[in-house]
Write a structure and sequence with these properties.
By secondary structure, the chain is α+β, with helices and mostly antiparallel strands. It contains 5 helices and 18 strands. It is elongated and about 65 Å long.
């Protein structure tokens, strides 16, 4: 029994997602789930991994009280456990779902500090990147209080363990299991020659450490928080840390991480 469990559905603009949301809503209503978009216990995203990322940021400041479940309208993704053909299974799983069995993945805290003292704090599930819009980016990279390198290139990407399979992987980063509590910093097209040198390879940074990027004073920086992109001026520094914040996934039919990696990048083993 769901005992009046509060739930909310979030889809995308595709017709398939809209139809799936409508069908799932009817099934859940028949089982007496309560629909609550303000204080839901479970948020079901219907679409793809991008839809789930959007759902996560919609409830970013309620993550201690919300669990997520992903329904994919295409192929299974890294954050989805069901497809649109499994709606009866989704309802059955939600009825049996227990908050104590939720699967938690770490988030990276991103704190943007500006020259006037103003701060922005966000959390990301995949990664945060910093780039310049038109020219080469220049910035110092500190690990905790230690100046590690002076970076020149297109930009930097700092990812979570689960985000290691996203943009991070496409720029040569390592795939990390979510239970490894660490961040990964990867360079985007760094300049390496006789004059300018960086490490030139991704780094796994321990939970205890703080990554600080101090960009040169320019007015055309682009920062991303997962799929969200913002343009900023007068940035003093950006700090990346693992502060203990997590996202909880309803453990209804949770697919093991390495199975997701194999399915997404290798396919079935012969």
């Amino acid at each position: 029994m769901n005992f009046g469990k509060k739930i909310w559905l979030i889809g995308n603009s595709s017709e398939k997602s809209k139809k799936t949301v409508s069908a799932l809503r009817k099934l859940l209503r028949a089982e007496h789930f309560i629909f609550d978009d303000i204080n839901p216990e479970i948020v079901v995203s219907v679409g793809g991994d991008g839809t789930l990322l959007r759902a996560m940021h919609m409830y970013e400041y309620q993550l201690d009280n919300v669990r997520f479940l992903g329904v994919h309208t295409g192929h299974l993704g890294f954050y989805t456990d069901f497809t649109d053909d499994d709606l009866f299974d989704v309802v059955d799983a939600l009825q049996k779902e227990n908050s104590k069995e939720a699967v938690r993945y770490p988030l990276v805290k991103v704190q943007v500090n500006f020259d006037d003292g103003y701060q922005i704090v966000r959390h990301v599930l995949n990664e945060s990147t910093i780039r310049r819009a038109s020219k080469t980016m220049l910035g110092d990279v500190k690990i905790s209080d230690y100046l590690f390198e002076r970076f020149r290139g297109d930009g930097l990407s700092i990812s979570t363990p689960t985000g290691s399979t996203a943009y991070n992987k496409s720029i040569g980063g390592a795939v990390m299991h979510p239970r490894v509590e660490a961040m990964q910093i990867a360079e985007i097209a760094s300049l390496n020659n006789r004059v300018y040198r960086t490490l030139g390879s991704p780094m796994i940074v321990a939970k205890k450490d703080l990554i600080t990027v101090i960009p040169a004073r320019e007015d055309d920086y682009s920062l991303t928080f997962d799929q969200l992109t913002f343009e900023y001026q007068n940035i003093k520094s950006i700090e990346y840390s693992l502060d203990g914040a997590t996202i909880a996934f309803a453990n209804c039919a949770h697919t093991p991480f390495w199975e997701r990696v194999r399915t997404s990048f290798i396919g079935e083993v012969e």
